[in-house]
Amino acid sequence: MSEPTFRMSQQRITVDDKKIINNDRTVDCNQLVPIKYRWAWNFYLDGCANHWMPTEVSMQRDIEQWKATNIFSADERHVIKRVLGFFATAETLVGNNLVLAVYRCVDNPECRQYLLRQAFEEAIHVHAFQYIVQSLGLDEGEMFNMYREVEAIYEKDSHAMSCTSSVLEMNPDDLKTKEGLQTFIKNLVGLYVITEGIFFYGGFVTMLSFGRHNHMPGTCEQIQYILRDESIHMNFGIELINAIVDENPQVWEEAFKADITEFIKSAVSLEQAYIAECLPNGILGLNQQLIQEYIQYLADRRYERLRLPKMYGSSNPFPWMSEVIDLKKEKNFFESRVTEYQTGGALEW
Ligand code: MN
Ligand code: FE
Questions:
Q1: Residue 283 forms beta bridges with which residues?
Q2: CA separation for the pair 12, 118 (Å, rounded)
Q3: At the top level of CATH, which class does the domain 15-346 belong to?
Q4: Phi, then psi, of 207 in degrees rounded to 5
Q5: What span, in angstroms and rounded, lies between the C-alpha atoms of 317 and 340?
Q6: By the 8 A CB rule, do 20 and 106 touch?
Q7: Of 131, 147, 192, 303, which one is the catalytic site residue?
Q8: Distance between CA 281 and CA 288 in Å, rounded?
């Protein structure tokens, strides 16, 4: 056991003492300041500036459209349910990984500050899908069991979870070995790059296509906010991975890079299988081919950010998605409605 850090001392911590992980209790994990990893603090501020709550969004038109018999085809109903069914459990899965695995291993306070913010955002996303499912009167048993009952969704989730269990069993000292660090980094790739950066996007692009046709506006407004949150989550995750690699360059060996490359590649195939199951016949100008191209385009961008070579060379068939990702909080992409968030009500004394 290492010595407890909390004791009387006149020795103060400087930024040079701080590390992303493996601080070994030599640095007080309760001292945010002095901040070393400014990017982590900035991501925290960005997350706070984007605050939103699902129940602020009206589901009235979605409910009317879903009830009507002449608006959605059977194929459209199928894909909407598959997308909501995937997200219904995926957001909880992400939250659990974050709090139980990632938070334990990352002992830098700036990063933990962001992780706490992100964990709350995952709770909001879980809430959003519960709210959508309930508003539309969907079969809750069907939606919340889909990740065990629909193979294409099961495969995505087990791929995402495959590297989490070994991190859950880790002792802090395991992070000091090259193998332990690699296991942890692979879990970060599975969470931030694959789940949030690839597996979410088939659903995002499909649902937002309904929004572009003025269908399911309340659901799509929430999906836009989620997409905006998720792109910050992924950006934080990639910075985190790269910072760990920079501080521990011995982990980034050729065999490990090849393993990560393959891990992402297999996720792209699983996302394609999921899209094929969701969208057998194509809808709203979307088809499997275009979404496949889009997912490959995204995967290439993720590879580049991880400083790995691109694998696909596909171009972006949905340039409008970039506009949604850059959405500013005050404007709704589809309706240009002002949705300025008000922090708390006025207190009455
Ligand atoms: Mn989320
Ligand atoms: Fe997330």
A1: 286
A2: 29
A3: mainly alpha
A4: -65, -40
A5: 31
A6: yes
A7: 131
A8: 8
Token duo for residue 33: 């300041």
State the distance from the centre of ligand 2 to the C-alpha of 174, rounded, in angstroms: 26
Q: What is the pLDDT of residue 338?
A: 45
Rounded CA separation 327/86 (Å) = 24
> What is the per-residue DSSP string for 161-197?
HTTHHHHHT--GGGGGSHHHHHHHHHHHIIIIIIIII
CA 163–ligand 2 middle distance (angstroms): 17
Which ligand is closest to the CA of 124, given by its number? 1
Domain ranges of the chain: 15-346
Q: What is the CA radius of gyration of the chain?
A: 21
DSSP state, residue 280: S
- Evaluated on CA atoms 185, 186, 189, 190, the torsion sign reads negative
Determine whether 297 is an active site residue.
no
pLDDT band at 337 (very low <50, low <70, confident <90, very high): very low
**Closest listed ligand to the CA of 237:** 2
Q: Which residue has the higher pLDDT, 338 or 196?
A: 196
pLDDT in tens, 97-123: 999 999 999 999 999 999 999 999 999
